[in-house]
């Protein structure tokens, strides 16, 4: 059977780091409050020349270098983002152009913080259906542009950045020791819209709007939804928490990550955490964490990796992939 194998990964961050102490100069907050509630110490914030497409392009180039490929080798680009440069065209098409590609196809996918898990699942389906051979999957966000910088309950949580992986079709035998995406499980439930949303949009206010969140409500649902969909992934493959080499969750909040790992019985040493450095970068957080674990040598070929995310919508999902 066809398996979608990860053959490269990369990332890009804005130049500017904003520490908790710096934020405390403009809103009533403290390093202590932010670290204790979220684990976040700093985040990267895009300057006016850095956009979702420019960060996405940089992450894409770093993934191509890592894979030893060129844009000619790619036939599809899927960009997971909720912060495109323009309402249209898709920023994926902008990235395609920046990479000098005239062939293939590119589109944006919007599932907020679950965007990367949705995009990997979509890329895997295209590859398995024979519609694509190599897909560049990017998660890129500039959430700083959606934040109400006077709202301390949200502005301290998010950051900007981009990450990318390249999936390539290869042969597998259909067993869980195959390399590649082994299983994907996506969920959504629109009845939770009011708990995390942006209060603007082209079809309503005609403005971009600001992120609004009922933090406690999100927290209350997050761990149950995440662990539920991961159990589905285990059931589909016959794998379990003890077999996971690396748990690479969406990086929203250290407490959500720790509580999910604990509930699933995943060894804390096997959890890749970058939330302390990056804050919540929405669809970019998982590929940023992947690139970090690859660069520092933790993540190796053959490792069993569990990806999961939950976010606005609500949307949530889990993917098991053998590197
Ligand atoms: N600095 C200082 N005080 C603050 C801040 C801040 N930045 N923000 C809120 N407070 C205050 C509140 O005003 C409140 O004060 P009060 O008691 O006088 O009214 C107090 O701190 C407690 O506020 P809560 O909202 O109850 O704090 P909580 O312990 O729930 O922590 C947090 C808030 C961190 C947002 C938490 O609810 C959370 O992590 N939720 C998950 C949200 C999340 O991660 N969303 C990301 C997007 S979704 C996803 O990616 C999974």
Structure commentary:
The protein is α/β, with parallel strands linked by helices and 323 residues long. The protein has 2 domains: 2-171, Peroxisomal Thiolase, Chain A, domain 1; 180-322, Thiolase/Chalcone synthase (Peroxisomal Thiolase, Chain A, domain 1), CATH 3.40.47.10. Helices cover 32% and strands 26% of the residues. The protein contains 10 helices and 13 strands. It has helices at 20-23, 31-38, 52-67, 91-98, 115-128, 152-155, 215-237, 254-264, 275-278, 285-295; strands at residues 2-12, 16-19, 42-45, 76-80, 105-109, 134-142, 160-171, 180-188, 196-198, 211-213, 246-249, 304-311, 315-322. The strands form 4 sheets. Strands 1-7-6-4-5 form a 5-stranded mixed β-sheet, sandwiched between helices. A 4-stranded mixed β-sheet has the order 8-13-12-11, sandwiched between helices. α3 crosses α4 and α7 (215-237) packs parallel to α8 (254-264). The two termini are 17 Å apart. Residues 29, 33-34, 37-38, 113, 152-153, 156-157, 196, 213, 215-216, 218-219, 222, 250, 252-253, 280, 310-311 line the site of acetyl coenzyme *A.
């Amino acid at each position: 059977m066809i398996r979608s194998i990860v053959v490269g990964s990369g990332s890009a961050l804005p130049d500017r780091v904003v520490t908790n102490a710096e934020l405390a100069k403009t809103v009533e907050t403290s390093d202590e409050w932010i670290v204790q509630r979220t684990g976040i110490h700093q985040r990267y914030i895009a300057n006016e020349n850095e956009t979702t497409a420019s960060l996405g392009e940089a992450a894409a180039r770093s993934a191509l270098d890592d894979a030893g490929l060129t844009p000619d080798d790619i036939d599809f680009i899927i960009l997971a983002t909720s912060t495109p440069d323009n309402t249209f065209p898709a920023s994926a098409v902008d990235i395609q152009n920046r990479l000098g590609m005239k062939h293939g196809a590119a589109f944006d996918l919007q599932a907020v913080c679950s965007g990367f898990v949705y995009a990997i699942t979509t890329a895997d389906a295209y590859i398995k259906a024979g519609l694509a051979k190599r897909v560049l999957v990017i998660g890129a966000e500039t959430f700083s542009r959606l934040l109400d910088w006077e709202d301390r309950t949200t502005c301290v949580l998010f950051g900007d950045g981009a990450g990318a992986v390249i999936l390539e079709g290869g042969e597998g035998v259909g067993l869980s020791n195959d390399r590649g995406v082994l299983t994907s499980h996506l969920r959504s439930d629109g009845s939770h819209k009011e708990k995390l949303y942006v209060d603007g949009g082209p079809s309503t206010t005609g403005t971009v709007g600001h992120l609004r969140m009922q933090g406690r409500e999100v927290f209350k649902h997050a761990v149950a939804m995440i662990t539920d969909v991961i159990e589905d992934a285990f059931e589909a493959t016959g794998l379990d928490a003890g077999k996971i080499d690396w748990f690479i969750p969406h990086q929203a909040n250290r407490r959500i990550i720790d509580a999910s790992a604990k509930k699933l019985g995943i060894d804390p040493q096997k959890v890749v955490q970058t939330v302390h450095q990056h804050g919540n970068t929405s669809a970019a957080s998982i590929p940023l964490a992947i690139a970090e674990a690859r660069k520092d040598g933790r993540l190796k070929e053959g490792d069993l990796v569990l990806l999961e995310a939950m976010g606005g919508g609500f949307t949530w999902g889990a993917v098991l992939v053998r590197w």
